[in-house]
Specification:
Elements lengths: L3 E4 L12 E4 L1 E4 L3 E6 L9 E6 L5 E8 L2 E10 L1 E7 L7 E10 L2 E5 L3 E3 L9 E5 L10 E6 L6 E6 L7 E4 L4 E6 L3 E8 L15 E3 L9 E3 L5 E2 L5 E6 L5 E7 L2 E3 L3 E4 L4 E6 L8 E9 L13 E5 L8 E5 L11 E6 L6 E6 L7 E3 L5 E6 L8 E8 L14 E3 L9 E4 L3 E2 L5 E6 L6 E6 L9 E6 L2 E6 L8 E8 L14 E5 L5
C-alpha cells in the first residue's frame, strides 16, 4: 500500500468563500532513482546512481539490482549516491531503490532504471499536463522524464523537421509548453553538439483540440437508500488537478456546505441531515480553475433514495418461480404498492444503490432482469416513495430470492505490454462484470492461484504486477473474479493472455 503523509492544506481544490471545508493533500513518498554520469558525452564511462527520498527524510537507503539487494547506506539524509564506476558486464542491470523511514519499515520502491552501457540511452517518458488537449486559456505542458542528469531534451512533433523545442537542465526532466495539436515525442542527449549519443524516443503523446473534457466518475461507499436525517458522501474523481467541482441533483447544481479531499484529483461532497426531498439522481462535473470556462461531461449518475418507512409495506413476487432459473431467462420482479403515482426502487442485498428505479402510472412496478446471468442471483426487495411533499416512503418488502444457474461471465485479460525486458515489471489487466470483486490470476492450465501484487484500477478492474520479471515469467495466463461474501460465486475463467519476457541487458 502506498506510503502517504497527509498534510492539512487546501491545494488543488476550489471552494466557495465561506464554505466549510476539510482538506488534505496526499504527498507521495515514493523515492526517485537517477543516473549521474561524470561525463555526459560518455555517459557510461563513470556512473553513479542517485536515490532521492521524495518529500521525506530517510534513515537508510537500499539499492536493488535485478530484484536483489545490491548496496545499502545508512544516513539521515534526503538522498544517497551509489557509485558504480565504469559500466561493465558485472554492473549492467535493472536498478531500483527504496528508503527506510522507521526501524524495520521499508517504504515504497522506486521506478526501475536500466543501466545498459549501450546506445541508444534508455527512452524517457512523456506525459501531458493537465491533459493532452489544446484549449483557449489553458496552458498545456509536456513533461519529459529522462534517466540521466545533466542532459539536453529535444521535443519533436510529427511532420516537423528537427526538434520544435529544446531544453538543457541539470535535472533528469524538463517541461515543454505547447500551443498546437499533434503527435509529440521527446528524446535526451548530452549537451555537447559534437556528441552523437542520444536516447531512444519516448512513446508518442497525441494532443488534440477536444469538444469537451472527459467525464469524471461518481462513487459512494454508503447505502444510498436511507431515512431522512441521514448522511451520505459522494466522491467525484478525475485524472487532473487544479479543478473546480460541482455536484448536481437531477441536472441542477447542489450547494454543498461541507467538502473535503485527500487528493487534488478528487473531492468528497458530504451531505448531512438530509431532508425527505433530497432524493434524486446525483452526478458531478468539473472544470479547470485557470483556463477555459468549459465544464466536463457529467459523470454517470447515482440515485439517492430517501424513505420515511411510514407507508404500507409493498409485496414483491418473481416470475418465473423456478427454484433455479436458467441462464439467459428474462426475470420479472413485480413490486405492488399501496398507492399510484409513486416511484419504485428495486433493492438487492449487498448492493449499496438501487438496482433499478421506475415511475409507473399505477401502483405496480415490473422490474425486468433481461437475459439473467449468475451475477443476478441474490435476495431482492423493493420500496416505493413519493417524489413530492411530504415525500413519504414505505419500508422494504419481504425478500425474494433469485437463483440463476451457471457462472459469472468470463472476464477479459490482456497484458499492458506483451513484451517485457527481464528485470522490468510485467502487468496483466483483468476486467470483470461484477463491481468490487475478488480477482485471481492463474498460469494457463494450472489451478493454483498465483500470489502476485495487484492494483485496483476501478471497481471492475485490477492490474496484476509481476515484479522484476524473469524469462520464466513469460507464458500464458488466465484470470477470474468471485464474490467476497458467502455464498461464493465465481466467474468463468478468462481466455488466455500471453506475455514474453525476453531480451538482455546489452
Amino acid at each position: 500500500m502506498a506510503a502517504r503523509l497527509t498534510i492539512l492544506l487546501l491545494l488543488g481544490l476550489w471552494l466557495d468563500p465561506g464554505m466549510e471545508a476539510e482538506a488534505g493533500l496526499v504527498v507521495d513518498t515514493t523515492p526517485r532513482l537517477w543516473i549521474e554520469s561524470e561525463s555526459p558525452s560518455s555517459p557510461w564511462a563513470n556512473v553513479t546512481l542517485q536515490c532521492l527520498a521524495t518529500n521525506t527524510l530517510a534513515m537508510k537507503f537500499q539499492l536493488l539490482k535485478d530484484g536483489k539487494i545490491f548496496s545499502s547506506l545508512s544516513a539521515l539524509e534526503t538522498y544517497a549516491r551509489f557509485p558504480l564506476g565504469p559500466v561493465t558486464a558485472d554492473n549492467k542491470g535493472i536498478y531500483r531503490c527504496r528508503i527506510q523511514q522507521a526501524e524495520n519499515h521499508w517504504g515504497l520502491i522506486s521506478a526501475p532504471v536500466e543501466v545498459t552501457g549501450a546506445e541508444p540511452l534508455p527512452a524517457p517518458s512523456l506525459q501531458a499536463e493537465p491533459g493532452p488537449w489544446i484549449l483557449h486559456g489553458l496552458q498545456t505542458e509536456l513533461h519529459c522524464q529522462g534517466r540521466l542528469l545533466g542532459m539536453t531534451f529535444d521535443l519533436y512533433q510529427e511532420g516537423e523537421q528537427g526538434p520544435v523545442d529544446s531544453s538543457h537542465t541539470p535535472k533528469p526532466e524538463t517541461t515543454f509548453i505547447i500551443k498546437s495539436p499533434g503527435n509529440y515525442t521527446c528524446q535526451y542527449r548530452p549537451p555537447t553538439t559534437a556528441s552523437r549519443v542520444r536516447s531512444a524516443p519516448s512513446e508518442t503523446v497525441h494532443v488534440v483540440i477536444p469538444d469537451s473534457l472527459p467525464k469524471p466518475s461518481l462513487e459512494s461507499w454508503v447505502n444510498l437508500v436511507i431515512r431522512p436525517g441521514g448522511s451520505v458522501t459522494f466522491r467525484c474523481r478525475t485524472r487532473f488537478s487544479g479543478l473546480e467541482f460541482k455536484l448536481l441533483k437531477d441536472g441542477e447544481e447542489v450547494f454543498v456546505p461541507m467538502m473535503s479531499s485527500t487528493d487534488p484529483q478528487l473531492i468528497d461532497f458530504h451531505l448531512k441531515d438530509l431532508e425527505p426531498g433530497a432524493g434524486g439522481r446525483y452526478s458531478c462535473r468539473y472544470r479547470f480553475r485557470e483556463g477555459p470556462l468549459i465544464w466536463s461531461e457529467d459523470s454517470e449518475s447515482l440515485e439517492l433514495v430517501l424513505t420515511t418507512g411510514t407507508l404500507d409495506k409493498p409485496s414483491l413476487s418473481v416470475q418465473p418461480q423456478d427454484a433455479v432459473i436458467s441462464r439467459g431467462t428474462n426475470v420479472t420482479l413485480q413490486c405492488l404498492g399501496a398507492r399510484p403515482n409513486v416511484r419504485f426502487a428495486l433493492l438487492k442485498k449487498g448492493s449499496r444503490q438501487p438496482v433499478q428505479v421506475l415511475s409507473p402510472a399505477g401502483s405496480r412496478a415490473d422490474f425486468v432482469l433481461s437475459d439473467a446471468m449468475a451475477y443476478d442471483s441474490g435476495n431482492y426487495s423493493c420500496i416505493y416513495f413519493e417524489t413530492v411533499a411530504p415525500f413519504a416512503g414505505s419500508p422494504a418488502s419481504e425478500d425474494v430470492e433469485v437463483q440463476v444457474d451457471g457462472l459469472f461471465p468470463k472476464p477479459t485479460l490482456h497484458p499492458l505490454s506483451p513484451v517485457v525486458t527481464p528485470g522490468k515489471d510485467a502487468a496483466l489487466r483483468c476486467s470483470g462484470r461484477v463491481p468490487n470483486s475478488n480477482f485471481q490470476l492463474f498460469r494457463d492450465g494450472e489451478s493454483t492461484e498465483l500470489e502476485v501484487t495487484h492494483q485496483r484500477v476501478s471497481e471492475y478492474t485490477v492490474d496484476f504486477l509481476l515484479r522484476n520479471a524473469k524469462p520464466q515469467d513469460g507464458g500464458r495466463y488466465r484470470c477470474r473474479y468471485l464474490t467476497w461474501t458467502k455464498p461464493i460465486l465465481t466467474s468463468e475463467i478468462s481466455d488466455p493472455a500471453e506475455i514474453s519476457v525476453t531480451g538482455k541487458i546489452l
